[in-house]
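Journal club prep — side note

Before the paper discussion, L.F. wants everyone to see what a predicted structure for a comparable chain looks like in C-alpha cell form. Sequence:
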Amino acid sequence: MLDQHSGQGIFSIAEVYRLRVEAMHLYEHCLTTGDDTSFISFIEAQIVENPPRLLVMHGIADDLEQRLLSLRAHHFDVRERVMQALRDGYDLDMQDLSPNEEKTDALPDAPLLHQMIVASTEAEESLQTDIQTTLRLHHLVLDWLEGMSAVSIRQHWISLTPANTGTILH
C-alpha cells in the first residue's frame, strides 16, 4: 500500500490521519456556523503543498461522502418517523402532503399535532441545509482532487520523457 503512495514523500500515515481529522472538525464547524471559509482555506492549504497531498484529499473526499450518506439516511429516518407517528396516532396519511381534512378538524390535540409537524419540518430543513453544504464541499474537494491528479500525472509523465527530444506530445 505504501508503494502506491510513495510520491507523498515523508508524509506519514499519522499525518494524513491528523489532517483528515482536522478537516472533519472544520467541516463540523461549517455545519454549525454556516460559514465554510475555514474549511475552504484548509483545502487550499493542502492544494499548494508540493508534492500535492493527494492521499489527504482522497481521504477527505471519502469522509465527506460518508457524512453525506449518513445525513441523507438521517433525513429519510426523520421523515419516516413523523409519517409513521401521524399514521399510527392520528390515522393521517401524509404521502400526498395533505391530511384528511375531516379528520384534522376533529382532533382533540391539534396544537400538539401542529407542534410535531413544525418541529419535524424544522429538523428536515436543517438536515437539508447540511446535506446541501456537504454536497457542495464534497464536489469542491473532488474537483480539486481531479485537477491535482491530472497535473501530478502530467508532471510524472513529462519527467519520464527524455530531455533531448524537442517535441512533447500533449
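L.F.'s comment for the group: The chain has one domain: 7-155. Keep this in mind when we get to the figures.
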